[in-house]
Each structure stands twice: as C-alpha cells, then as structure tokens.
Design a protein that fits this description.
Helices cover 20% and strands 33% of the residues. It has 6 helices and 10 strands. It is elongated, with a radius of gyration of 38 Å.
Length: 216
C-alpha cells in the first residue's frame, strides 16, 4: 500500500502503531482530547468526607458494617422496702394511687382485701409481705399495680412506682448475691442502673403460682 504523502510541515507517519499512539494522546478522532472519565470511588469518598464534616453519618460501604438491632425490654420499676424491682410493662394494666380497699376477714395477712377496678372486683396483695421482704403487712396502701396475665388480674400493693425503664435484654444477669427463696422463685434476673440494681420479676409465674391461685 502506498504511503500518504506528508503535507508541508508534517512529519510522516511511519506505521499504524505510531498513528494509534498519536490518536490516544490527542483524542480518538484527532480533533481534541476526549472527556475525562469520572472516578466513582473518589467521588463517593469525597461525599462521605463532607457528610462527616457536617456531622452526618458516613455512607455505608459494606453490608457487614450495618449493626444488628438490639433487643430491649420495657419495664415498670417500683420500690419495695427501699429496693428496686420491675415487671415487664406488658403485664401491668394500670397504676392506681390511694385506692379504696375493702378488707375481707379470714384471708392470709398478705391478702389485703378487694377493690373495684372499672366494675371488676380485684384482689389486692401486699407484694413485699408476700415475698418475705417485709416482716408484716402494710396498714396503709398508697400505690397499687394492676397486673394481668391471661384472664388472671390482681392488684399488687407497692411502696411507690419510680418510672418506666427500657434496657437491653443482654444486660439481664444472675444476681451477685444470694436472694431469699421466696423471691428466687419469681426472679428472672437483675440488671444494673447507675447506682443500684433492679430485680426483674416474672409476673406470669407470680400470678399463676399456687398461693395466688388458692386465695385470689
């Protein structure tokens, strides 16, 4: 094949490879440079850096970095003889202050009597005395937790209700000291909160226990 004659001022192209190199250097069609290719990874890194600087969360790069949700429990924390206890909130129907209780003769001392809750007659138990935390039953009821599990509903007299508390399930552990046998039967575990421990009680076990079932 005949070589193309070089115009005045041009250098002759010796072979096709030289032509290809020249085109790559100045653009594929020889008319100018091709548009610059965007570096996607560099762009994402820059955006992520800007978000971090603005106080936002950086973009996730890998699925493995996504944290699994933490299982939590919501509980009603209450006081018995200056100690903290709790029931799962799903077992507490309501909290009553200074309820009117009718005494019933011939019942165990821990069973304080009955009260009317929205037209239903509900037994009231002195929880601290029932669990052996106090040596004698209370004579003045200030706060009652109306607990329910299934069709069983019982009022539980406590010293006070502190608050509703949410905590991770993995914080529940065995108590660090020996507990009374009357409490151990109903104890799900304990968890620490700031400057004290909270004992989580099993409301189902408590309300369905033989003693409760016999008198309530």
């Amino acid at each position: 094949m005949a070589r193309r004659k070089a115009k005045s001022g041009e250098q002759p192209v010796e072979n096709q490879s030289e032509l290809t190199e020249a085109q790559a250097e100045h653009g594929s069609n020889g008319n100018g440079p091709e548009p610059e290719m965007l570096d996607l990874n560099a762009m994402l890194a820059e955006i992520s850096g800007r978000l971090i600087a603005a106080g936002s969360t950086s973009l996730p790069h890998r699925q493995s970095e996504v944290q699994q949700p933490i299982e939590r429990k919501q509980s009603v924390v209450f006081i018995l003889n200056n100690q903290h206890y709790a029931f799962e909130i799903s077992r507490i129907r309501e909290v009553l202050r200074l309820p009117e209780i009718t005494r019933v003769p011939g019942l165990p001392d821990w069973l304080l009597g009955v009260m009317n809750v929205h037209g239903e007659i509900v037994s009231v138990v002195d929880l601290a005395y029932f669990l052996g935390i106090k040596a004698q039953a209370t004579s003045y009821v200030t706060t009652v937790l109306v607990a329910q599990t299934g069709d069983q509903q019982i009022g539980l007299s406590v010293d006070d209700v502190e608050q509703i508390h949410t905590f991770p399930v993995d914080l529940i552990g065995e108590p660090l000291w020996e507990v009374e046998p009357t409490i151990a039967e109903y104890l799900q575990g304990t968890f620490e909160r700031t400057d004290h421990f909270i004992h989580l009680l099993d409301c189902d076990q408590l309300l369905h226990g033989s003693q409760m079932q016999q008198f309530t």
